[in-house]
């Protein structure tokens, strides 16, 4: 009799494992009702075997919890299923794993990035994502994980960026570098170029005066301005600051350098000297005047 129940249990476990169909969650043709059905199946599997909550499946180490926040229903509706989310959280999943076998792809990182994909039918609002993030943090997600701020910047999530700063996140990794890179890419997309070896940049500097550039720049620089309300300039990576200075010196974009000056650039002697030498190299007259007046 005992042997019979052991065999029955193993058969049930095999059947339940075979019923886990993760592919359906990625299929844009899957209906919301089908997603609900599959999520309920996952909850049933966990009811029978709670130890599966942190098990990794397949070549991408997928976990059951992932599909309660990433599925085609979220893309179709722009909403999370908080009712089912609360149910799966009762199984106490680890919320600090990397979802796709790459660094910085935890549920928190992925929550921030959700909605950035322009193929999603309905945009996911920042309020919706903030609600999800607060639930994740309440249930053990590490809000001090690396590169959350730059993930919010890269996903153009300003309210989430502010929420993270309010939550005492101080990891500035790649923020200034990303802003500098985005400026250079934007210039390139408009038929111009930003190159370190190029010292004649009159066309690029004329473009900087246009409303098109100003609107783009203001949308990006507000992230740095907000970060500097909480984080000292000296806490940013010096190489990233230098890259930021180079890009804006090429463009003679004195507004960007003024932000640094207002936040103690010339208290950082080496970087201050670097900004002067860089402005001289590119003959950035507006920046040189600003540095002379401010120093």
Task: Describe this protein's structure.
By secondary structure, this protein is mainly α. It folds into two domains: 165 residues, Serine Threonine Protein Phosphatase 5, Tetratricopeptide repeat; 120 residues, no CATH class. The N terminus is likely disordered.
Beta content: under 5%
Largest sheet: none
The secondary-structure class comes to mainly alpha
Shape: elongated
Poorly predicted runs of 5 or more residues: 1-18
Order of helices and strands: HHHHHHHHHHHHHHHH
Tell me the name of the CATH class of the largest domain.
Mainly Alpha
CATH superfamily of the largest domain: Ankyrin repeat-containing domain
Task: Give a brief rundown of this model.
The chain has 295 residues and is mainly α.
Helices and strands in order:
Elements: H1 2-19, H2 23-26, H3 32-48, H4 72-77, H5 82-89, H6 107-113, H7 126-138, H8 148-154, H9 158-166, H10 175-189, H11 202-208, H12 211-227, H13 238-250, H14 254-262, H15 269-281, H16 285-294
